[in-house]
């Protein structure tokens, strides 16, 4: 198994040109690998891709759709609970995320960020949880309405994730469309960036600093 995510749009553009070599099932573009390869004794390596809807696929799957995505919740929970930045000296540039399972290395790349929020639910204690990567409440963080951030350049919406998972998560497009109905804008200043969010009859002032600070930290 393996997880990865590449934030750089330049990399993403190039990685879409992955070429399949049918002979030995080696996939290459800027990087070559064989699923299940063993670079050292008792170690296996697998390569995964997470799309902008938060669905998990084998990186070399020809067709990436609902049918070919991993859907078993226990597996997804196990996989994402172990997801973290790739800090080992293998595939770090092209697969910046990894999920370790014993001697199994699961390298991961993604369309944007590996954590993709898909659903808001209310827990038994009354708090709202933002569920991610299609595992219901088993993979979730506390929903913070004031921390939603819309990137007006690409139209995508982001929300804080756990520090282990990079602190930033993407909101899936379907969920973002629903949430966009509750964004409020300060049209007097001709500012098309949302300034407030209306949630459960309460108006929240949006805080963009958390997102901007994290992006600056990543660049530096």
From TrEMBL:
Record Pfam families: DUF4505
Family per record: Belongs to the UPF0598 family.
Protein name stated in the entry: UPF0598 protein
Organism: Sipha flava
Name of the gene: CH082
